[in-house]
Fold this protein.
Amino acid sequence: MVSKVLKALAAVAVLALLCLPVFQHSVPKTLWVVLFIAALTYGISLFLSAGIPPYRRWAIAYLAFVGFSYLLAGIWGLVRNGDLIEAAMWDSLISPYPLLTLMRHGIPGSRNATDWDNIYVLPLSEHHLFSITVVVISLVAIVAAFMMARGNRTGFRIWLALVSLSIIATAGYVILGLVRWGVNEMIIPTAWAASYVAAYVMARSNADQGSSPKRLTQP
């Protein structure tokens, strides 16, 4: 118990250091993001059983972190005057709207067509329903991640569906990156989707071994 408390304090200390302006400005952005995610993931992993193999524990904790990330984006969509922060968060996540709007309007005929205004990352009008949906799905994702830690099959199925949806949504970024936005705009969503797949595979790997039959039954 004492060891976990010390590890948690160490994770909090790292996060506090990373949030200092001197670190934010001196450390390369990519490295800063990696360190920030690693510290948060490590902190979340401390809530999981030590009996889980480290690679599975980290993978599950990372998926829980992903759920928290989308939860924050959804919450900011419900906050008055939170549009700028919400938009900044979705610029760093995978939104379903690029693909949905492409499916609805199709790919415009030319690079200068006004129809490109119909392709967007967030709804152009009031989108409380979208934000509420994101919040609900994110909460389900977080709960499912901790269910995975207990070897619960429903948790694995939920995350398999979420990972599959993220891959489908990323297709919109890939299409737009190739025909309009530029290749750089599809790097982050593709990297996120790849990390979700890798984390799920690691979390699922050998999950049946060492788990009791009760935990592997449908609740």
Observations:
- Residues 210-219 have pLDDT under 50 and may be disordered.
- Residues 111 and 180 are 7 Å apart (CA to CA).
- The chain has two domains: 1-47, 58-204.
